[in-house]
Amino acid sequence: MKKYAWRVSLIALFIVASIVYLVPTVVGQLPSWWSGVLPKDKIHLGLDLQGGTHLVMGVETQKAVEGQLDLIATDIEDSLNEQKVRFKKVGKISSDRVQVTLYDSASADAVQKLVKKKYPDLELLPATNEGGFVNMQLRINEKEAQVRKDRAVAQALETIRNRIDQFGVAEPIIQREGIDHIVVQLPGIKDPKRAIELIGKTARLEFKLVDENVNAATATPGTIPEDDELLYEKRTDPTTGAVSETPLVVKRKAMITGELLTDAQIRIDSQYNQPYVAIEFNSTGARLFDQVTAANVGKRFAIVLDNNIYSAPVIRERISGGSAQISGSFTEKDASDLAIVLRAGSLPAPVKILQNVTVGPSLGADSIHKGLFAGLIGVALVVVFMAIYYKISGMVANIGMVLNIVYLMGAMAALGATLTLPGIAAIVLLVGMSVDANVLIFERIREELRLGKTPHAALDAGYDKAFLTIMDSHVTTLITAAVLFQFGTGPVKGFAVSLSLGIIINLFTSLVSTRVIFDMFLDRVRVKRLSI
Amino acid sequence: MELIGKTKIDFMGMKKVTFVISGIIALIGLIAIIQIGRGAANMGIDFSGGIAMQLKFDKPVTIQQAREALVREGVKDAELQEITDGNKLLIKIRKGSQGDVKVADHIQDVLKKEFPANPFQVESSTEIGPSIGEKLKKDTLVAVAISMLGIVLYIAWRFDFKFGVAAVVATLHDVLAIFAVFFLLHKEVNLLLITAVLTIAGYSMTDTVVVFDRIRENLHKSLKDPLMDVFNRSINEVLSRTIVTSLTAFLSAVALLVFGGEVIHDFAFALAVGIAVGTYSSVFVASPIVVIWEKAPEEVKA
């Protein structure tokens, strides 16, 4: 008895551990005493089984860098104005350059000082003379651009996480993948289209003054003044659903931006029963808003989100206190989503949806049922075959197979692995392969018995001689499983996880578990003939 | 119980016939891979980029009706496929012509308008941009290459070089066979198929290793016998295990194929084909290669 004590206890220990880890998955409501170190995680189901949306988004990082150059240009312009330095023009001239055009080289010194102080990370190219003007160029070098791109992706990730949290999705997964990809998984989501719109919106909020000197109806992008831009206000008729577009010419420069917001909430207009979004500015924003409205009473102020005008109300009076409202022709859902994106902040760069895999809950449930049913049929077929072909020894192999499945499920729960439909397939396949090792051993034992060995001697020889073969065959499969894990995504990764765990566990069950059953049996009972 | 008793089949003697069969399979497989590389096969949208949607209608819809409806609204290059149980329709558009995200919404709108009395549910919808497809193609090639290399190195270490090469040739043969079958049946080449192919590569190798193990053992025992005899005897000795293990794995794969549902149908099919071919190849491809290579028994060093 002593010689297999450690093996039996190891087997028992694994069984207990597997069952403990499987309790949260199997039991719907955990009892109250189930606490402390006891595991609480269920086996995760992949999106293909529980339904949901898997998104891969690409952050357009180059645009983030260009956007920052625009900001830098505006900031330099403001600072030069403040310092009363005369200049002709400041603006971004290429994807990595801002150019300051001055009237004389005397002001170049001032610009140089300013740039050194405020933007030490930027490269200042030597000033050049051109047609009587002095050109100074600021360049963002490759390394600095990379740093900013990297930051943009990190920031986008954070913003998307905020938005999803506020939207309310249970157990979302939001991860960065590679250089500029973000992977979002939303299990069990009901309205994927709405969620995607919410996540993908850049949500750059700007307040811009309407240029009343230009006739918007006849304006084209070529004919308007250089510091103006042509934008459209979209209105949806609530009864007919028809969309109308009204052109408006606004100042290119935003007076106030969404970064200055502290809060955004959906409210319902009591008079017209129309939803709108109430926004609150921080102290800087409130002061700016106060100044701008005071200076522009009677003019129109366009509220622009991602280059679409939501509304352009006339400033009737100076607005202090730092609150305002965004109204437009939107539904309650639109307004509530707008409030969410404003609260969560804007994305530093537009994102593009590169991949969108959505599985409806019904298909997922269908897949689980069919997968499990197919699994049961597979197990039943193999069990019956083994019992007929190898009789009692076949039943021992069947016990080993059941142990395999229990261990595998336990291990998946313990590791927090994800079960996908191909993962179920891997388990079913494993059922077939788990008896493979036993078949190898049994065939070997039969051969040894034919040579006239006693049952025990044949058993020992069978296990010993089959050992290397079993190792070889398992290692080769493990190599492919490991590669699949490294390169696969989603369902394929689930397959690789189930397969590789299964292979390792199978090695244990076939070499230790079934062996110990035979040993114990043959030690206790004097058998003349092995039932194999 | 025993399916087959002691056998004395001259497997090596059949090599002329089986080499011709395998050669044809491999040739079709190569053509299939070239066609896949050119994108001329039935590529899944995970590789080509595009849109795939599975819709479940309340009442039966024929492909004809759906196609006419879509063409009327300007969706011309959609591939439609019916799933027999439960009035399901699979719509696929590869990238290039209209591989725009908006198309998915457009198709739904069209079908809603054209079949007002027959509402549907979107059971699944997949949109994949071309850049992802390209990346996936590259990753897959790397994955296949690395796993093949890993297996070659392992076999070369455990056996000798000739066995290693023979095992890899047999495995490649099986991989080609699966592609050949999928190509001839015009089944979709997607990521799940690649997964199945890699799994079969591992499985086929396993099967070959078992046969080689026995050959090596017998080569050590009987150095004087002709090589052909040792190989034939070894294969005959492990024949019942080869058949039994393939049978159990095959039974599981068939269970998946029949009962696993449409999502996993082709995957299970590839596994079933692969298990069958993998068993054949370890006997009829891998072993004869070693025999031909090692002309005289004196040279055996395994």
From TrEMBL, chain A:
Residues 244-349 form the SecDF P1 head subdomain domain. Keywords: Cell inner membrane, Cell membrane, Membrane, Protein transport, Translocation, Transmembrane, Transmembrane helix, Transport. It is found in: Cell membrane. It comes from the Bacteria. Part of the Sec protein translocase complex. Interacts with the SecYEG preprotein conducting channel. SecDF uses the proton motive force (PMF) to complete protein translocation after the ATP-dependent function of SecA. It comes from Geomesophilobacter sediminis. InterPro entries: Acrflvin-R (IPR001036), SecD (IPR005791), SecD/SecF_arch_bac (IPR022813), SecD/SecF_CS (IPR022646), SecD_1st (IPR048631), SecD_SecF_C (IPR048634), SecD_SecF_C_bact (IPR055344), SecDF_P1_head (IPR054384). The keyword Membrane applies. Belongs to the SecD/SecF family. SecD subfamily. The lineage of its organism: Bacteria, Pseudomonadati, Thermodesulfobacteriota, Desulfuromonadia, Geobacterales. GO terms for biological process: intracellular protein transmembrane transport; protein targeting; protein transport by the Sec complex. It holds the Pfam family SecDF_P1_head. Residues 153-212 form the Protein translocase subunit SecDF P1 domain. PANTHER family: PROTEIN TRANSLOCASE SUBUNIT SECD (PTHR30081:SF1), PROTEIN-EXPORT MEMBRANE PROTEIN SEC (PTHR30081). The chain crosses the membrane at residues 371-390, 397-417, 466-488, 494-518. The gene is secD. GO terms for molecular function: protein-transporting ATPase activity. Residues 352-512 form the Protein export membrane protein SecD/SecF C-terminal domain. One of its GO terms (cellular component) is plasma membrane. This is Protein translocase subunit SecD. Forms a complex with SecF. Part of the essential Sec protein translocation apparatus which comprises SecA, SecYEG and auxiliary proteins SecDF. Other proteins may also be involved. It is a multi-pass membrane protein. The keyword Transcription regulation does not apply.
Automatic annotation (TrEMBL), chain B:
One of its GO terms (biological process) is protein transport by the Sec complex. Pfam families: Sec_GG, SecD_SecF_C. Residues 119-295 form the Protein export membrane protein SecD/SecF C-terminal domain. Its main location: membrane. It is found in: Cell membrane. The keyword Transport applies. The chain crosses the membrane at residues 17-37, 140-157, 164-185, 191-212, 238-261, 267-293. It is a multi-pass membrane protein. GO terms for molecular function: protein-transporting ATPase activity. PANTHER family: PROTEIN TRANSLOCASE SUBUNIT SECF (PTHR30081:SF8), PROTEIN-EXPORT MEMBRANE PROTEIN SEC (PTHR30081). Forms a complex with SecD. Part of the essential Sec protein translocation apparatus which comprises SecA, SecYEG and auxiliary proteins SecDF. Other proteins may also be involved. Part of the Sec protein translocase complex. Interacts with the SecYEG preprotein conducting channel. SecDF uses the proton motive force (PMF) to complete protein translocation after the ATP-dependent function of SecA. This is Protein-export membrane protein SecF.
